[in-house]
Amino acid sequence: MTAFRTHDELVDAVSEATFDRPPAVVANAHITGLGVARALAAHDVPVIAVDRSGDGAAPPSAAVAFAGEVTYPLDDQAGFREDVEALAAAAGTDLVAFGCMDEWVHAFADTDPEGVRLPFADREIIDDVLDKSSLYRLAERLDVPYPETVFLDDGTVEERVDRATDRLGLPLVVKPAFKREFEEAVGTNVLEVETAEELRDILTRARAAGIEVMAQRKIDSVRGQDHSLASYVGPDGDVLSLVGNARVRNPLDFGTSCLVERAEKPVIEQRALDVLRETDYYGISEAEFVYCPDREEYLLLDINTRPWKWIGLPVAAGANLPMAAYASVTEATYESPGLTDTRWVYLPDYVELLATNSGVRDRLTPTDWRAILSGDIQSYADLTTGVYRPSDPDPAYQVLQSTLGVTDYYCSC
């Protein structure tokens, strides 16, 4: 089990190690970071997991060589840069950065720490993709369908309320241009609004926080039909990708994915890559689409310019996106062995949903459950698990501690 060290202790430990290739520095160190660490460690890449606390899932993993504290970039970006540069100097070789939440990606891109290689596009390009205001306007130009949207970046609060309700009616959905800052301010990245008074309150709060928001027509989407393109696009335009179908979310409609299956949806891949190519984005990303039965179309919702919670699905299916990104900035090589069909499940969320919602059908088979419970899941080709891994049990124990309230770690992933 890897110890989570203070920053000074981490620098000392790294300085005593010898590296035959650039280590990866993975931030933050929770579920997504664990998936990235395991993907890289499978190819003998040393992983340094960093975070503001040691209570995430990744630090105790056998896939992590070193784990420790760095300054949280939203508190002190200059301090973050200084901490990361100290790690690179201690390693005696460059580090390869993997940001697993938006604020960490932005910190690496904004500060460009000396001795750190970035396997993704610069901040200006990232913002063009992350900012839903610019993303939807680009989608409009490319004829990529997206939810009917009213942009609320000008006018008084009353004018914006009237504009949104006149066009979209009620209820409607409010989203931010940048979801992470909105989540920090109001506790979520999407709000369903039932009344004009609710909308007026949200717009007032957003204006006070300096956050741009937009209104969207509420989509009566079909559960189990959300699809995403999981991809790595290289600086030369090479693409490694697959489509994942979020069959089950918890909560059901707006929740996080807890059961995802590989799918064949060429239209999803084409539309997502059209947008990525138009922006010149390269790096790992997830392009999210929802199916709208009224329009009989898959609508682009969002693009995450980083790894995400179910990053283990493409890795298990033969598309190791983190390793492809690592190879793009080092002397390492990576070639996909070819894609296979598989599924990914995050057991804590999935089991909770089955236990608390009588209307949800278990999509796992008795054979699946036997593979999980017997510990044979790691050699089971049809299913992979997030966090739980019999040969690497400490991350699952860490999540169990958080679930029981023994430790406290929050991450929207």
Structural class determined from secondary elements: alpha/beta
Question: What does the overall shape look like?
Answer: globular
Named at the architecture level, the CATH assignment of the largest domain is: 2-Layer Sandwich
Order of the strands making up the biggest sheet: 15-14-11-12-13-16-17
For the record, the CATH class of the largest domain is: Alpha Beta
> What is the overall pLDDT average?
94
User: What is the distance, rounded to the nearest whole angstrom, between the alpha carbons of the first and last residues?
Assistant: 23 Å
Proportion of residues in β-strands: 15-25%
The domain count comes to 3
Low-confidence runs of at least 5 consecutive residues: none
The CATH topology of the largest domain corresponds to D-amino Acid Aminotransferase, Chain A, domain 1
The number of helical runs is 15
Mind telling me the C-alpha Rg? 21 Å
Q: How many strands?
A: 17
The residue fraction in helices comes out at 25-40%
- The CATH homologous superfamily name of the largest domain equals ATP-grasp fold, B domain
Biggest beta sheet summary: 7 strands, mixed
If you had to describe this structure to a student in words, what would you say it looks like?
- With 413 residues, the protein is an alpha/beta fold.
- The chain is built from 15 helices and 17 strands.
- The chain folds into 3 domains: 4-120, 3-Layer(aba) Sandwich (Rossmann fold), CATH 3.40.50; 148-217, Dna Ligase, domain 1 (2-Layer Sandwich), CATH 3.30.1490.20; 226-305 and 310-345 and 347-385, ATP-grasp fold, B domain (D-amino Acid Aminotransferase, Chain A, domain 1).
- Helix 1 packs parallel to helix 3 (77-91) and helix 7 (157-168) packs across helix 9 (196-209).
- The protein starts with a strand and ends in a 10-residue tail after the last helix.
- The relative contact order is 0.13.
- The model has no long low-confidence stretch (mean pLDDT 94).
- GO terms for molecular function: ATP binding; ligase activity; metal ion binding.
- Keywords: ATP-binding, Ligase, Nucleotide-binding.
- This is Carboxylate--amine ligase.
